[in-house]
Amino acid sequence: MTTIRSSASEMAAALASGETTSVELTEAHYAQIEKVDAQVHAFLYLDKEGALAQAADVDAKRKSGAELSPLAGIPLALKDVLTQKGIPTTCGSKMLEGWRPPYDSTVVSKLKAAGIVILGKTNMDEFAMGSSTENSAYGVTHNPWDLTRIPGGSGGGSSAALAAFEAPLAIGTDTGGSIRQPAAVTGTVGVKPTYGGVSRYGLIAFSSSLDQAGPCARTVLDAALLHEVIAGHDERDSTSINAPVPHVVKAAKKLDVKGMKIGVVKELQGEGFQSGVLSKFHEGLEELVAAGAELVEVSCPTFDYALAAYYLIAPSECSSNLARFDSMRYGIRVGDDGNRSAEEVMKLTRHEGFGPEVKRRIILGTYALSSGYYDAYYGSAQKVRTLLMRDFNAAFAQADVLVSPTAPTTAFKIGANDNDPLAMYLNDIATIPVNMAGIGGMSLPCGLAEEDGLPVGFQIMSPAMRDDLMYQVGGTLEAALLSKWGGPLLDKAPVLAGN
User: Fold this and answer.
1) Looking at the 3D structure of the chain, how many domains does it have?
2) Catalytic residue from among 154, 207, 443, 462
3) How many angstroms separate the Cα of 230 from the Cα of each of 170, 227, 499?
4) What is the mean pLDDT of residues 195-209?
């Protein structure tokens, strides 16, 4: 029997067999949203009328015998950083409150073409800057495993929607870990494709050389199915790779790692990593060995500098990208009473429109790019980036994929790091190197930490445009763990209060 707890691939099979309809699935997920989202706050906007119209259209096409995509009729939650024509798009910021884009992002266009039903927009850290979804101007999102804890960030709304069974699929974006870290702390699957593998057209930019949209799901196969929908070359994105999309669905179904070499990154499992996280990570390694893989320890010394380099490059690009929000063209405008200059209105608008974390990063980036400091800060950080890429290349010469814990800890309490930006930034210590090098990265659940019973993420990293390799390893590990657990990890999640 198909329920909202089924995987997207199971729902797709039920649709194909006539067991259910897209309208029924969509209505069931809206019923769940109505039931739990007051506590979780995963969504910022729901497009019920539009979604049901999409669902009815798919059902009509299916009834007529039309050829449909594998995910046609499956509901999805969309991170509020991607434009959808006529639908409010805020990036979690007051700056864009009320803005309705006049165009679809390429990702949204591909979702619509595939017949995927977009339920609504999910909450996020403002302009994707954060690791906890506490920086949204529209309120905090709560982790369905424990409502007093964060769901990760910046894409905590998407991951929480999956974990609370409000949607079987979601789209996130990953600049320094914003898909993978939320997946880790909510017991879901999140993938950052190779940079350029998914179009950034219509993705409101934070850091243009790092941002990448990707699939979020509850299983590796579901993520692969969604990956193939949204990936591919786009001439509207100058950084889009003009090459065939890796066969990630085929790889996810392979369930075979015999003879593969798995590189365990020495620098990503030491000081600062919770003991329960390391314990579950090593249990995951044991499952891969039992499946026939060979473990190889690899050292990537410059990973120790990745965080510092990232927090010069990302804020610098943020400072440049967010300069467009000047009160003159779109977004809110504050203080325009006819008596103030454009400069005064701009200053008032940016003061009111941006939250503290965004302001912090704009200031950092503007300083790093300023005259006399550019070479010392931004230029030096780019040199470190080159060294990071060399470390990855050397490591991939020894192993097919690299692995590490996704996040150093399980989900922390809401408010725990409010006054400690560095502690917040350290949540992305294991995910940032992937973005800096532009390669693929995946997080999948590998168990519950002994200390607190909360989910732990297992990260798999693959060479550029070999995203299929991380799906092959991820699918194999997931199958082994499901067999060991006797079912999905989310089946062990505490029931939401009142649900």
Assistant:
1) 1
2) 154
3) 12, 6, 33
4) 98
